[in-house]
Fold:
Amino acid sequence: MTWSIPIGRFGGTTVRLHITFLLFLVWIGAVYAARAGMRAAIDGVVLVLAVFACVVLHEFGHVLAARHYGVQTRDITLLPIGGVARMARIPEQPTQELVIALAGPAVNLVIAAILYGITRSVPHLSGAAFQDQGVGLVARLSSINLFLAVFNLIPAFPMDGGRALRALLTYRMAYAQATQVAASIGQGIAFVFGFLGLVGNPLLVFIALFVYLGAAAEAQGALFRQLAHGMIVSDVMTTHLQPVSPDSRIDDIVVTMVHLPQREFPVVDGQGKLCGLLTHAAILRAMHAGQTDAMAADIMMPDIPTLHSYQSVDDAMRLLEERQVPAVGVCDGQGRFMGLISQTNIGEIMTIHILRDKSRLPPARPALR
Ligand SMILES: [Zn+2]
Structure:
């Protein structure tokens, strides 16, 4: 987060540039300048910028398709390996996921077609198409867009093709199972890439690693979501928390903090209502600034979203994700504070469930005695 610079905001979505992307631009400029002089360096940098403009348009393809289904995208970050759009949630309805996944590559195909219309030079996928100085910049950009469409359609997470594959499988099986199958196919492809990379292009080894890790992360996320479907907030929340009142002094809270394993303090008023959350970081910051006589209400994080204890863990995960808060409050029917749910809570409970399920399964092979 801190390593990326916001460069603009379009329709509620912030576009960020990762610092490594700027380094990449400098590197491209330097390589071209050393190899073929200043003119080539400028051409190289202009081409990279044009490619990344196309990557942004690709990401906005996803963003607009997602918005069509009511899913907002907080930001898009540009890395040298491409763009990453952070959506508030991933729709589990296969048609929606399919449309959102395909909208990105579709944008590149449209750009390639428009550029072909301008240059009448047929885009193709050989490496020479991107580097050949004899071919104009626009024609090269057209070939690169064709490559971006094809590359993103590789059926492996975290590529769009992986999501499209899962969506297609979801028509036939449960979402989590479809994710497992799609992740396995993706990891198989990663191995092929890795092998081809070792004997040929080393860039493929890097892509293989990227795909392998992406598949593993996606599979785990889907497993979590599947487990979350069957649980309610009261199964997961942390109770036995020491609350503090809005007018508690930081000095006094610090004394309590030393004796408790608690990192976050719910700020609860006389009626038992949650007013905010006092984070460990906020307490340390106040102490560092010498505001030890400040009150909890002054430095707490207000507007903590709340849920009822009978709501699903799914809802809690969505709120944590959408509102970017460290924890969500849990209230009873009268709106009185009962406990907190954080990402750590959910992760811990999920791990326990997974381990418990594993121990129930028969051993894969007979145990040695
Ligand atoms: Zn994409």
Summary: Confidence is low (pLDDT under 50) at residues 361-369. The first helix runs from residue 19 to 36.
